[in-house]
Amino acid sequence: MTSLPPPSPGQAYMHVSALQAGMLHLPTDFLVQGEKHGYKHCPSLAFFLRHSASDKHFIFDLGLRKDLESYPPAVRAHYLDTETAQMRTRCSVPQDVAESCLEGGVDPATVEKVVISHLHFDHVGEHTPFTSATFILGGDGAATLADGYPENPASYCLSASVPVERTLFLNRTEHLTTPIGPFPLAYDLFADGSAYIIDTPGHCPGHVTLLVRTSAAGNWLYLGGDIAHDTRLLTDADTDIALTTESGVACCVHRDPAQARVDIARARQLVKLPGVEFLIAHDWKWFEDNLENAFLPKQFVPRKL
């Protein structure tokens, strides 16, 4: 039976605070098979995490950048379409991650690590304020960057999405070698069992998720990025990712639907385990319910075991 490692004596864990990182409208029938066409006003959540023992800290995801015009032409044309104001995702960024950090009392220049779940436009944000950070990406993302814009004019990814000279690309021979719960490949970020970066490549090449302890007693929080775009996919085995829209048009938000289903099935197993809570990047309900109590400088409070 799948289980998670019990806490060690003096077990370190992570203090977790959400960060505002922009909003976007997502079409509902692109997310879950059989849904009526409509739109959900969703956050692109980012997180500030601080190690309980060492006070070391890092950020998971950078959300949207404020300057939408700085995205590659392919992104602007397909998702934003700012010239005709027909924004498919109707993005707005009242506050980006750097501004959210400053408002919460954290200087972006002091952030030590930034883990990017994947290289889609609503997760890479703007890296330039994080001048001291080592960036961490799933290794398969390296090829996406190498083929990015402007070198490839048709690419949806900016080749300068991260500072490559201080980026660690996690590979499956040196880094992603630790099994955790139902997932076979993970990286123990602090080598103490407090935070695991998990290989979940179904959404797109290089996609990773994060599992962190949130107490010394056995609480965990799974930050799922874009492993799923609706919480029901992680709680209801009868809910499936969309392969067609309501009108019957073939469409899937995951690059590899078969692998995405494997990743989601594993995540379902994980979130059923005692003490495990989860958040996905575009969880509109959690955002609405917790905007006043879980965003930096405030912290996510684990539920009682």
Describe this protein's structure:
- Belongs to the metallo-beta-lactamase superfamily.
- It comes from Mycena indigotica.
- The strands form three sheets. A six-stranded mixed sheet has the order 1-4-5-6-7-8.
- It has one domain: 4-Layer Sandwich (Metallo-beta-lactamase, Chain A), CATH 3.60.15.
- With 305 residues, the chain is α/β, with parallel strands linked by helices.
- The longest helix is centred in the C-terminal third of the chain and has 15 residues.
- The model has no long low-confidence stretch (mean pLDDT 94).
Question: Keyphrases for this structure?
Answer:
single chain; 305 residues; alpha/beta; Metallo-beta-lactamase, Chain A; 6-stranded mixed β-sheet; 6 helices; 15% helix
Brief synopsis:
The protein is of the alpha/beta class.
Task: Please write the string of helix (H) and strand (E) elements.
Answer: EEEEEHHEHEHEEEEEEHEH
Enter the CATH topology name: Metallo-beta-lactamase, Chain A
Strand segment count: 14
Instruction: List low-confidence stretches.
Output: none
CATH class: Alpha Beta
The coarse silhouette is globular
Tell me what the CATH architecture is: 4-Layer Sandwich
- The CATH H-level superfamily is Ribonuclease Z/Hydroxyacylglutathione hydrolase-like
Strand order of the largest sheet: 1-4-5-6-7-8
Please give the largest β-sheet: 6 strands, mixed
Mean pLDDT: 94
Helix content: 10-25%
Structural class: alpha/beta
